[in-house]
Amino acid sequence: MTAATTRDGAPGAVAWADALLALALFAVDPAGLGGVVLRSGPGPARDLWLERLKQLLPAGVPLRRIPSHIADDRLLGGLDLAASLAAGRPVAQRGLLAECDHGVAILTMAERVETGCAAHLAAVLDLGEAVIERDGMAMRLPARLGLVALDEGLTPDEQPPDPLLDRLAFRIELGSVRTDELGRAASSPNTITSARLVLAQAAPVDDAIIEGLCEAAEMLGIISPRAPILALRVARAHAAIQGRAQVTTEDAALAARLVLAPRATRGPAETAPAPDADTPDNPSPDAAAPPPDPTNQAEQDTTADAPPNASEMMIEAIQAALPDDLLAQIAARNAAKARAAGRGGGGGKAKSARRGRPIGSRTWDLRPGDRLNLVETLRAAAPWQILRGGGLGATRVQVRQQDFRIRRFIQDPESTTIFAVDASGSSALNRLSEAKGAVELLLAKAYVSRSRVALIAFRGAGAELLLPATRSLTRAKRQLADLPGGGGTPLAAGIDAARALAEGEKAKQRTPLIVLLTDGKANIGRDGAPGRAAAAADALTAAQAFRAGGFGAVFVDTSPRPQPDGDRLARAMGAVYAPLPFVQAQAMADLISEVAPKRGAARARG
Amino acid sequence: MTVRIAYPFSAIVGQDEMKLALLIAATDPGIGGVMVFGDRGTGKSTAVRALAALLPPLKAVDGCIYHCDPKGDLAHCDAACATRLAGKGRKTVPIATPVVDLPLGATEDRLVGALDLEAALTRGEKRFEPGLLARAHRGFLYIDEVNLLEDHLVDLLLDVAASGENVVEREGLSVRHPARFVLIGSGNPEEGELRPQLLDRFGLSVEVKTPKTLAERVEVVRRRDAFDRDPKAFVAAWANADAEVRDRLLAAKARVAKIETPDAVLESASRLCMATEADGLRGELTILRAARALAALNGAKTLKESHIREIATMALRHRLRRNPLDDGGSTIRIERAMNDTFAA
After folding, report:
1. Residue A533 domain-assigned (yes or no)
2. A175 and A208, same domain (yes or no)
3. What are the pLDDT digits (tens) for A445-479?
4. Size of interface A-B (CB pairs under 8 A)
5. What's the ipTM?
6. Is residue A87 part of a domain?
7. How far apart are CA A531 and CA A525, in angstroms?
8. Are residues A423 and A472 in the same domain?
9. Which residue in the set A88, A293, A375 is minimally distant from B214, CB to CB?
10. Among the partner residues B172, B193, B228, nearest to A471 by beta-carbon distance
């Protein structure tokens, strides 16, 4: 299989051929390549791919599934409960990642993985070992492994966390593959075994190839240096599959297509200025390959054997290998990226029982749902062992009810301020920019108190979530600055969107505060149809539904003069009505901080 | 099981500001830690782990669980170092400078230390099992992704880092032991911001960027590839360069206390802090200490304005009272203030 042959045929067949190719490459060097993001719903294509993976890996290589709800102690390792109780001393157990050493771990529902869990995985991928400091244990266990991240995201902004995306070489989409396109033969396990042997004796690579990959990465606007490093390893694996120790231009071109193209943030033909405008030596990425950087040539001390234009040839080969619809793919990704802000990850409720500051352990009374803190319990029992008759020689620890220690946590109430901003034409006239100013001031406050902010804009046909709850000020600011104005006022849709988001935040144990900025002049109904009367009635219904949620809210009336409509809506919502005809950003920010829940009202959970 | 081989410090391409900040902190641990901000994949963790391999060994009291400095103040040590050292046959032993990685998900008991369960359950002994803070004593404590660390652990760390002492009061234990270490944090601003109170506690802050020129990027990949293929040979090839850095560091440590500080330079440091409106005295103190460490690293005997110029940005960048919405202006503001101050 080469770069040339896989690109003919129907899109599904091409995607499947690429998926099989990536599979074989990954099987050759799982730990070196980091892994594969497999974007696809459950189905025959994914099942078959995973089945092939199992067949290709040499016998005895561990292949384990990581459920998305895995606890840290099972992922990394920790205390073995049963064994500790039986032995009367702490017994360590290996985590799943350590069990996968020299093998492959499959992460299910990777798009829902929490930031914390992703950071653990990233650290293990970087170090090749699992480092544990918890539950009274300190361990370092080898964990050199490759990760297959099953990504079932449907919308473009549902995707695995960036730290993982950055470290896994391949991104494969199986969405377009039809059932009748499956079934082309993959490499055999023997190929993989012999390729691994070849890889172990890899020869140095021509500088021209490294330069070509780096230049291609730059041309495609890829910032992370990990991308060309991974691409080079993929090129090596491809050479190894074909029994060569020497990497050729063709290997590199294929690696560029599989590794670099899915990461591209701009097209090769785009002459858009690079993000760093002060870089004078940006190659102008035109179809006619750019002249090599003079400083490069000066540094080429080991490339005497390479033909002079090897780097240019590489670029051409890479460009030829890039998918035709690359630009469309990039546009879709960029649009998604703008929206995919700091997602908190899967909203499991069990999480809240593990968060916050432990406020010691509670004694007595083990109720269902409580989490026993085993280490603390054993510590409590330890001093009494002789008295309880077990004696020091006894093999079983005597634990009584009064020894039970239950994990307790205190959590500073986290809050999320949701801004629902009316960006319609009428509102734009009435100082959308001033509303933006107030939101910016509040953002600054949120920055200090580390609360989250979210931004919803409604205009035209409906409401749009511009920014899911995030702590990243940089993102919030960018979204706000880009907020355009104009169009009708779908007030009902705005209120509904704010309510939906507020409920989501509440489920994540955060207190939502909604700030609605509008002039109250609804003229687009829930069904998206224009009409002032129907729109006002819809807005009132939405307001009443909102009230049922019992959220704290502020209704900021931005119309030129206060009006009964606004007041009525605010009351229906259960919101504080703030007519600010001469809205001053500072006054508004002060008002909202007054309404905001005070910090310090601690909430404890058992 | 093979031991993981660290990437050599000198083989890291570019990133001079980060490398200098780490060396300054190693020269004068009193500077108060380094915060490294940066894009993904820019070698933040690699640099810290490489530093660990480079640091010169320390002398410690033999048998002390806190590896106390035999020449230091031993009165605070719970493990009775003073007695150990006085007794016959007790000697000092060389140990590697500790560089402790605080993994995400570490629990409080592992950080501060706790009752040794095994001793308690099997032998009925009440014994303190030291935690990571004890292990990091006289060395470095590295926290990757500091912005993902739980707030209560961050508070605890800062408190210990500032006081130099870890006080444990739990499970009937009452232990205090010295814990002086250099805190190194790294983080990606896109993942969430740090509290300003936390930022201020770090002595220096550096921003790591992806290499800009193609030549540099090619070199990153080339060296990484060489390292992957044969780590041992790669490390051997860079051993001399690393040894030079180690010698420079050792010489600087010996020299740093003797650096002369002319009044005029002292004054210009104060003027610079006033011009940038940096908060408090910490900025000024850090500038002086960092500049002295730099002078020592450069083999100078007297502090000069040029030393201050070189480290002012990393010492002040995170201390400016900034409008959080005005991004990235800090460096420019400091440079402008420097031009004004030093031109006059």
Report:
1. yes
2. no
3. 666 566 788 888 888 878 888 878 877 777 777 77
4. 195
5. 0.76
6. no
7. 7
8. yes
9. A293
10. B193
